[in-house]
Every structure is written in structure tokens, then in C-alpha cells.
Amino acid sequence: MSLFDISPWIVKKKDGTKKQVFPQTSIKGVIGLEKELTSIKAVVENLTGKKFDKNYQNNFLTKKDLEDYVTTNQLTQSTTNSKAYADSIVATLKESLPTFNQQLLDTDDLNNFKKNGTYYRKYSDTILKNAPTNDTDSKVGTLIVLNSGNGQTDITQIFITTVDNSKVYIRGLSGVPATWSEWRILSDPKELSK
């Protein structure tokens, strides 16, 4: 018998009957295989709830066992994965689509508006934080945000007032670290009429 031969031995018992046994081995590969088979057996028993016994016939999984495992475990996992994938697509779309006609509230800070889109301001006595001016011009109007797609920098904001014949202000966010420029007036109807 060679060193790697682990074929079964036939042994005579005291009562004269014969018994098939496997030799004990100290070969690392075989010991590792035995441990791996034992762990696989434990996993299958855990998943199926079916205990494996010494009776060879009782250790087969039935078609029903496999169907139950596939429908309850894999289908649940597949559904979970599909939902997570769909949610990630929706989140990506929401981030990439511009915002249209979102209302600016008294508590808003214009420095926080970096997503492409249009935002409107209903008349309020409160002037928004980081608005173009500290007078009535900034109390009502429309903010347009143009993001180059770079994320948190290279952003242009345009604020169009709807008080006193619509003035147009502009500023940008750029640099490292990113900073907002001062608001500049682009058009003032009073200046144009002179």
C-alpha cells in the first residue's frame, strides 16, 4: 500500500463478521479534506434542517429540500439584491437630474445650493443667508444653479429679482479650497434706461 492509498480496509470483528473501515491518516491534505467535508455537512444540515446520519440512504437531499432552499433563501437574496440595485439607480438619477421650482425657505443658505436647477423665493421679510443684497432685491426672485458636473466646485449661481424691474446677479464657486466669489450685478434696468 502506498503512502497516499486510503482505500477502505476490511477488518474481521470478534464475532467473525467483516466490517469495512477507513484507515486513519496524518496526511495534511486528507485531514483538510475531512475538515472541509465536515463543515459542508454542518452548513447543509443548518440550511435544510435535515440531520445526516450513518444510514447512507437518509443523507440524500430530496427535490423538495432543494426547492425549499432555492425559494426561501436564494429568492429572498435575489429580491434584496434587485431592490438595492433599483434603489441605487433611482438615487443616481435623482442626483443627476436638475431640480425645478423648489422653494427657497427663510432658513436656507444660498451657499448650500449646488445642484443644477431653478429655485424660487416667495416674498418674505427675511433675507436669505448669502443672498446678493441686504435689501428688498433679495426678498423675492429666482435662483438658477449651473453645476459643471464637477460635484462641489465650478458652480455658477444666477439670482434674478422680481422687485424693481428684475435685476440679475451672478457669482461662482471655484478654487482649492472652493470659495464663493462676491455677487456681481449683471443688469440693472435703472442703469439701462439712462
Provide key terms for this protein.
alpha+beta, 2 domains, rod-shaped, disordered N terminus
Structural write-up:
- This protein is an alpha+beta fold and 194 residues long.
- The chain has helices at residues 28-48, 63-96, 189-192; strands spanning 9-12, 18-21, 99-103, 117-121, 141-147, 155-161, 168-174, 179-180, 184-187.
- The strands form two sheets. Strands 3, 4, 5, 6, 7, 8 and 9 form a seven-stranded mixed β-sheet that branches. It has a two-stranded antiparallel sheet with strand order 1-2.
- The protein is rod-shaped.
- Mean pLDDT is 74; it is low at 1-5.
Outline, from the CA principal axes?
rod-shaped
End-to-end separation in angstroms reads 112 Å
Order of helices and strands: EEHHEEEEEEEH
Structurally, how many domains make up the residues?
Answer: 2
Number of helices: 3
Compute the average pLDDT. 74
Profile the largest sheet: 7 strands, mixed
Alpha carbon gyration radius: 37 Å
Poorly predicted runs of 5 or more residues: 1-5
Total strand count, please? 9
Summing up helix and strand content along with how strands pair, one would put the structural category as alpha+beta
Approximately how much helix is present in the residues? 25-40%
Q: What is the subunit arrangement here?
A: single chain
Question: Percent of residues in beta strands?
Answer: 15-25%
